[in-house]
Every structure is written in C-alpha cells, then in structure tokens.
Design goal:
By secondary structure, the protein is α+β, with helices and mostly antiparallel strands. It is 45% helix and 18% strand. It is built from 13 helices and 11 strands. Strands 6, 7, 8, 9 and 10 form a 5-stranded antiparallel β-sheet that branches. Strand 1 (3-10) and strand 2 form a beta hairpin. Helix 1 (23-40) packs across helix 2 (53-82) and helix 10 (387-401) packs across helix 11. The radius of gyration is 33 Å and the shape is extended. The relative contact order is 0.11.
Length: 456
C-alpha cells in the first residue's frame, strides 16, 4: 500500500497522525470489498455470486464504501505503525486511535484518501537535567528504646484478652464493646445511626466518631451522652466543623494480659529463638534492614521528585485513567467487594474517586512519572544485571531480614517474583550510578518510628 504520513505531537503526550493512501490503492480496496459482496450476496432473481456489480452498488453502495474506508484505515495504520520510524509513535495499548471529530472520510475511488487520527503515546522524554540536585539522607539509629518498643508490640500481639473486673473504668488500651446512636438537636435519635456491639481499642482512634478520650473512666453498663466538636479540617467532610451528640453505652470492657518479657516469649515467637537475647538480636537485624530499605526509598524518591521538576513532561490522559482504574480495582479486591460497590461505599463521603485513590495509594501522576523516568534511564543507560548481581540481591535481602538465602529464594521461586527481584537489582544499580552525578549529604536525625510516618 502506497501511504504517506505525518506525525504531529500535541498536548498531554498525544499525537495526531495524518495519512494519505494513494488513489490506486483506494480503488483496489473498493474493488476487493465489492467483489466480496458479489460472491456472497444472494438477491431474488439472481444466482448467488452472479449479481451484477451495478445492482449491488445501487442497493448496498453506502455500506460497501463505509466498510472499505474502515478497511483502508486499518490496513494503512497497521502498515504505518510497523515501520521503524514509527516506534516512538505507537499508541498505548489502552489508547485506541480515533478519527478527528469521529467523522469517517468520504470514499472517492478517483482520488487519494486522507484521514487523521489522534491517540495517546508513551511520553517522549529526555532526562538530561541533573543540575542543582541535592539529596539529604535522614540519619537514624536503632537504640534500646526502639527495640523495647518492638518488644512491647510483640507482647501485645501475644497477649491474652480478659474481662476487666466489675466496676473497673475504661482506660487507654482497653478493648470496649459499645452501643451508640447519634442524637439530634431536639433529642431524638438520628435515623440509621444506631449501632450495637461495636468493638474498638481505646486510644487508637479506630471508632467512627473518634470518641476515645470521651469514654475514658466510663464503666460497664454505663450510658453517657457525648458532645464532640470536630475541627474544620477533619478528614471526614461530614464531621468537619460540626458538633455531634452521641449517646453511648459501654457493654463490655476487656484488657490485654501481657506475657512476661522472657525466654518463653522468645520461644513462642519462633522456634529459632532460644532466649530473649536471641529475639532482641534478631529484632535489631530486622529493624536495621527495614531502616536501610526505607532510607533507600526516601533517597530514590527525593531524586525522582527533583528529576520530575527539572525535566517536566505531560502524561497521556488514558495512562492516568488506566492506572487509577487499576488501583480502584485493587482496592476493591482488598476490601472483598466489587469496584461498583466500592464506588458507592466511599464516594458517598463527598470525596471524588481521585481524592480517595490519592489518600489511599498516593499521587498517581507522580508515581507514573517516576516509573517512566526509571524506565527511560534503564533504556538510555543500558542497565542490566548479571546472575551474580541477582545472587547478591538475594544475599542482601537475607541479611536485612535475618533469614537464610534459601528461605528468600524459596519465596521468589515464582517467575513473576523472580522478575521483581531482577527489577530491584537493576534499580539498585541505576541509582548507584545516579547518586554519583548529584550531591548527596547528611540530613536531619530522625527517630526510627518517624521514618515510616507518611509525609505531610
């Protein structure tokens, strides 16, 4: 097929393709379509395959022309995109090319056929500006205080839950069972707010109305009317800046009976540990590994954020939408529901789907741009890893987690997991190169626990 083409970049990493198919190919395509109709159509008064062409054209001309134009466009597009000069202009798998104004061009077998398509492509980006990039690496130590905090968590996870004595008040850390209902200004109960048997741990802000402090000191079977005014910037828009009245009854109070910090507890945690010191040493190793991974993540994120700022580019809308749809579906799967039901459950709070996705999984555009930059740098710098480097990655993970290399390898036997390890090893290699091209210095001292808090 004789086709001329022109690619024009437009905003948001989209492209406009204008193509012209030579008149001879247009005429040939029409004859092929007409021949197909001639062979297959059966019209009263004529034997199948013997209907005169002019009768078919009179009766089905518009349909044949429409079909022919579609075939010409499909064939021309396939031919164009297979060319080496079109490798940067191929549509994304979820970005179907569409005709300008969705208007099919007219077919005239005596003329060339010109059509124009628009579609999204992978962003064409050059990552060249590394000037002025400075990375501050947080400084953090694992002290006895952090290890004791982790031991406290282990105690709580291995605690027995027992009823508190009658007459004992609700205290921070207690597990309470409550009945409650919201009260209107006129003293009546607000429809659909009555709940029974709601269980939560006091002090963790896990209950709907966030009334942990308000129930401290209450006793079993005690009823209290609570009035709570919420901040104007409360995360729940239904509560922000409002005062709610809640009538609450404590139905049960339980407490955790913590086990002693001794060798028995260490053995309960794992048969690998014989003494409490064994457990402490293992915890320190695991926490050091977690700290190093988190600091590496903070360094790479800082670098990528600065590269995004210094090498700006737009993302195609279809790419953003596909990523958000994938995240929404993943959230629905985690919550054991359908994407449609999740939509009803969460967007009723007054937030948009985009706001909820950002709140739960982070900034979609920033993550996509970071991923694209890494992929481009992989390609531009021809980053690859050897089997020995993958083995070193296994060893590093084993050391950080305080387990054997064989245990790590067993987990990554699945080919998809093995691919993940290879990608991580490639990223390590890439960032080692990049850090040599920017300024890396010491940042502020940060407590171990604060390393893992989400950034404001």
């Amino acid at each position: 097929m004789n086709v001329t083409k022109e690619f024009t970049k437009i905003e948001n990493s989209a492209v406009k393709l204008t193509a012209t198919v030579a008149q001879a190919d247009v005429e040939s395509s029409y004859k092929t379509s007409l021949s197909k109709y001639t062979k297959n159509l059966q019209i009263p008064g004529f034997r199948k395959g013997h209907v005169p062409a002019h009768i078919i054209e009179t009766k089905y001309g518009s349909a044949i022309k429409y079909e022919t134009v579609g075939d010409i466009i499909d064939n021309a597009l396939n031919e164009i995109l297979q060319g080496e000069d079109a490798k940067d202009y191929r549509p994304l798998p979820y970005a179907q090319p569409r005709l300008i104004d969705d208007k099919m061009p007219e077919l005239d077998t005596t003329k060339d056929l010109t059509f124009t398509l628009v579609y999204d492509i992978f962003p064409l980006v050059e990552i060249k500006n590394f000037s002025g990039i400075t990375i501050k690496v947080p400084q953090s130590e694992i002290t006895d205080k952090e290890i004791q905090a982790e031991l406290k968590s282990i105690q709580e996870r291995n605690a027995m839950v027992i009823d508190k004595k009658d007459g004992a008040p609700v205290e921070d850390g207690d597990i309470v069972t409550t009945d409650y209902v919201e009260i209107a200004d006129d003293g009546s109960e607000v429809a659909d707010t009555k709940r029974e048997g709601v269980v939560f741990t006091v002090g963790k802000d896990e209950n709907f109305y966030k009334i942990d402090k308000e129930i401290l000191g209450m006793k079993k079977d005690e009823t209290k009317e609570i009035s709570k005014t919420y901040a104007a910037d409360d995360t729940n828009p239904e509560f922000a800046g409002k005062t709610k009245k809640i009538k609450l009854t404590v139905k049960a109070i339980k407490q955790r009976d913590l086990p002693a910090l001794d060798d028995d507890l260490a053995q309960d945690v794992s048969e690998k540990y014989k003494t409490l010191d064994d457990l402490k040493n293992a915890l320190k190793t695991q926490m050091e590994g977690a700290k190093n991974r988190k600091i590496a993540e903070i360094k790479s994120q800082s670098l990528l954020e600065q590269l995004i700022e210094k090498n700006p580019f737009d993302l195609p809308k279809s790419m953003i939408q596909a990523e958000q749809d994938a995240r929404w579906n993943m959230m629905a799967q985690q919550m054991q529901t359908t994407p449609e039901q999740l939509d009803k459950m969460l967007t009723s709070s007054g937030q948009s789907r985009e706001e909820i996705i950002k709140q739960w999984t982070g900034d979609t555009e920033k993550m996509l741009k970071s991923r694209i930059i890494v992929d481009i740098l992989f390609r531009d710098r021809n980053i690859s890893v050897t089997p020995e480097e993958v083995e070193a990655r296994y060893q590093k993970m084993a050391d950080e987690q305080g387990v054997s290399v064989d245990e790590i390898k067993k987990y990554y036997e699945d080919p998809r997991n093995k691919e993940y390890i290879v990608d991580e090893a490639k990223e390590d290699k890439l960032f080692e190169e990049l850090y040599k091209e920017v300024k890396v210095g010491k940042g502020d001292k940060v407590a171990f626990a604060d390393l893992f808090k989400p950034a404001n």
